[in-house]
């Protein structure tokens, strides 16, 4: 089940976001109490994005347990009327629920929601190419690896990492079940 994030999700989200293995490729470090407060404030507020930079945050429940969270962030507004035409997807799941297809099922539903609810032309995901689980998820979602940029992301603790960009166009989503 997908639903918006509530303040009482703090313990469940805090449990996996405090794990350095989970946050290894995320843009934030393993969360302490203050970091979790900042993240929860952002997730709980993410219910109805309408302009660039705003997010929709969804909790993913399985049998009444929160197993992960998803984010849709309205991004660059290159459309003629300046409405957001691109959105970025993000996902974080509890390791104890990995490898069962929950992220695939939930992200598929979020993609359907995004293209149905917003006049988006394109969805994208950006990730560290070493994040193979996330790359495989993008591929299962029918996204295309469009770019691999070199050393464009300042790593925590120093150094630079690459970025892989995956994309899914509206017309590809519309023809997703045609078998082509
Ligand atoms: C990225 C992330 C969400 C992927 O999680 P995941 O468990 O691999 O993804 P799913 O829940 O969709 O499970 C898919 C896996 O289960 C298997 N699986 C089992 N049953 C399945 C089913 N019914 N449907 C789809 N896959 C299934 C798949 O084969 C796949 O395994 P594989 O990748 O070894 O081939 C997870 O690794 C994560 O949260 N990482 C930490 C946060 C992070 O890095 N986020 C991304 C930042 S860009």
From TrEMBL:
Location of the N-acetyltransferase domain: 1-172
Keywords: Transferase
Alphabetical list of InterPro entries matching this protein: Acyl_CoA_acyltransferase, GNAT_dom, N-acetyltransferase
SUPFAM superfamilies reported for this sequence: Acyl-CoA N-acyltransferases (Nat)
Keyword check for Transit peptide: no
Signal peptide: none
GO molecular function: acyltransferase activity, transferring groups other than amino-acyl groups
Superkingdom: Bacteria
Coiled-coil regions listed: none
One Pfam entry name: Acetyltransf_3
PANTHER family the record matches: GNAT FAMILY, PUTATIVE (AFU_ORTHOLOGUE AFUA_3G00765)-RELATED-RELATED, N-ACETYLTRANSFERASE DOMAIN-CONTAINING PROTEIN
Record protein name field: GCN5-related N-acetyltransferase
């Amino acid at each position: 089940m997908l639903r918006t994030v509530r303040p009482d999700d703090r313990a469940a989200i805090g449990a996996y976001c405090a794990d350095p293995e989970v946050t290894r490729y995320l843009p934030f470090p393993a969360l302490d109490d203050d970091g979790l407060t900042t993240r929860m404030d952002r997730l709980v507020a993410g219910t109805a994005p309408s302009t660039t930079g705003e997010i929709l945050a969804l909790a993913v429940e399985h049998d009444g347990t929160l197993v992960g969270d998803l984010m849709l962030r309205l991004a660059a507004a290159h459309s003629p009327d300046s409405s957001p035409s691109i959105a970025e997807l993000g996902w974080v799941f509890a390791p104890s629920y990995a490898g069962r297809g929950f992220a695939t099922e939930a992200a598929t539903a979020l993609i359907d929601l995004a293209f149905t609810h917003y006049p988006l032309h394109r969805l994208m995901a950006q990730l560290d190419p070493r994040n193979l689980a996330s790359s495989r998820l993008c591929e299962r979602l029918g996204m295309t690896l469009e770019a691999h940029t070199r050393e464009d992301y300042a790593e925590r603790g120093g150094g630079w990492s690459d970025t892989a960009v995956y994309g899914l166009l509206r017309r590809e989503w519309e023809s997703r079940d045609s078998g082509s």
